[in-house]
Input
Amino acid sequence: MPVRFTWPVRVYWEDTDGQGVVYYANYLKFMERCRTEWLRSIGVDQVRLRAEQGLIFVIVSLEADYRRPARLDDELTVTCEIEGHGRATFTFRQEIFRGGDRGELLVSGRTRAACLEAQSMKPKAFPSVLVKELEQ
Output
């Protein structure tokens, strides 16, 4: 499986709630950005994938455990790594840390994504560039 991918995020005012902590749903946005940047890092451009092959990725399940709050201006590190995959789905293990990817664990979770044909919304096998990466 591919090595753990990391993506830095800084907490902005818009990410926080009335108490000055990150609003819980925004952690999911941070995880999404990390997965998207991982795809880019292995050469998968989602806009081009849809335009040229008619394929999209959708989240089909998600679980998150919130352990500690992040606050305004915190520097976070979001990680993702593939835990497993099938023909048209893959599962990411994701974590969000304060203080680097070995710092204080704030959120941990799992996200399962499916590859779909955009018109029919039916499962489709992964594109070859992604299959190569998953099989490393």
